[in-house]
TrEMBL record:
UniProt source species: Shewanella colwelliana
Residues in GGDEF domain copies: 225-361
Domain (PAS): residue spans on this chain: 63-109
Broadest EC class assigned to this enzyme: transferase
Enzyme Commission number: 2.7.7.65
Coiled-coil stretches: none
One Pfam family of this chain: GGDEF
Domain of life: Bacteria
Protein name, per record: diguanylate cyclase
Reaction(s) the record says it catalyses: 2 GTP = 3',3'-c-di-GMP + 2 diphosphate
Length: 361
């Protein structure tokens, strides 16, 4: 339908909102709104639907007509906003991402559906585009958070491109293409978690340990706070494996990991699997006394571990040897030196007879 025939349309409607929306589209002067006869609500409804089609742009001109048809068939989430950031068209997939029916979205401010952290950026983008005398450059793709109509937050990747006034027949319009990132994000976070976690025990792995040690070291030096490190090694674990099998050996390491994690004095601290049957505790802001108390808690709980649930005799027990080093007065020049000191203390605990705690002095 041409824009000339659009001007002939008369809409009977109770919906004053719709009249306002039509007004925003610049066609209000051609439409009269009156109360529909009570017995003719169906007709009024049809006219409303038709008027919505007008608003959605599908019959504005040949170009927009074609665009409206095309985006409705696209398997991408696509919407069109005018220079004021008001939704003019929206395809079903985009409406799904915004969490509302298309009719409810048309005429609304697009930026109202942006996460608060992005609003200013896009509002000023539209202001600068409006002022710009040349064709505005495209924006994105960029990761943004959509604040859906149902209040849920959704991560999407968004790009905005300009449809020039020469094509639209009126003003510059902006076409937004979105991709739902929810699945990718979830996979990314899961992969990130796996990359930092020891698969057998669920504790932090060596990679996470190294990073956390460096961060804690920097904080300790800059904040003049102590930093304690405890290295824990299971005693005679080869014998445990040889006697009870590697599967039970794995279960034993899992039990030890639980004990070690529970013994941490605060949430700032980290328990990691350092190597095969070795664990390590990073204790930021903890002095030697706290580190020793923590090591004693680990020792007592591990000595009490029972393996009857694995079908082993109640007399089966394990122990660990522990080495502690504490950075407090700048005596260790690097985090590696701190690890070496804790390792040497552990070696002494082993040679002194095992099931012991040794503090590096
Ligand atoms: N089941 C199991 N065993 C492991 C794992 N990682 C390392 N080990 C075993 O841990 C044992 C370590 O043996 P050693 O280094 O000789 O030390 P140990 O027998 O504990 O003796 P000390 O440390 O001197 O008290 C080896 O038998 C490894 O196979 C694991 O993930 N699962």
């Amino acid at each position: 339908m041409s824009s000339a025939s659009v001007k002939k349309v008369v809409v009977d409607t109770m919906n004053q909102d719709l009249a306002k929306r039509l007004e925003r589209m610049g066609i209000s002067q051609d439409i009269t709104c009156s109360q529909p006869p009570k017995d003719n609500l169906d007709r009024a409804k049809k006219q409303l639907d038709f008027a919505d089609e007008l608003i959605s742009g599908t019959v504005k001109n040949d170009f927009l007509n074609a665009l409206g048809t095309v985006i409705n068939y696209m398997s991408e989430a696509i919407f069109v906003v005018n220079g004021n950031g008001v939704f003019e068209m929206i395809n079903p997939l985009a409406a799904q991402l915004f969490g509302a029916p298309r009719e409810a979205l048309i005429g609304q401010q697009w930026c109202d559906f942006l996460g608060h952290q992005h609003k200013d950026e896009y509002l000023s983008l539209f202001v600068s585009w409006k002022k710009c005398h040349e064709l505005p450059s495209n924006h994105g793709p960029k990761e943004v958070v959509i604040h859906r109509a149902d209040s849920l937050l959704l991560d999407v990747d968004l790009s905005l491109s300009c449809l020039p006034a020469s094509q639209t027949g009126s003003e510059n319009l902006f076409i937004g293409v979105m991709h739902n990132l929810t699945t990718h994000k979830a996979e990314y976070h899961e992969l990130k978690r796996q990359a930092r976690t020891d698969r057998l025990t669920g504790l932090a792995n060596r990679h996470e340990f190294d990073e956390m040690l460096q961060t804690s070291w920097n904080d300790s030096i800059n904040g003049h706070q102590p930093l304690s490190l405890v290295i824990i090694d299971v005693d005679y674990f080869k014998l445990f494996n040889d006697r009870y099998g590697h599967v039970n050996g794995d279960r034993c390491l899992q039990k030890i990991a639980q004990v070690v994690e529970k013994a941490l004095p605060s949430r700032q601290c980290l328990a990691a699997r350092y190597g095969g049957e070795e664990f390590a505790l990073i204790l930021p802001n903890c002095n030697a006394r706290t580190a020793e108390l923590t090591a004693k808690r680990v020792q007592a709980a591990i000595n009490q571990l029972s393996f009857t649930d694995l079908g082993l005799h109640p007399s089966v027990r394990v122990s660990v040897s522990q080495g502690i080093a504490v950075e407090v007065l700048g005596q260790y020049r690097t985090p590696t030196a701190l690890v070496c000191a804790a390792d040497t203390a552990l070696y002494r605990a082993k040679s002194d007879g095992r099931n012991r705690i040794n503090l590096s002095l």
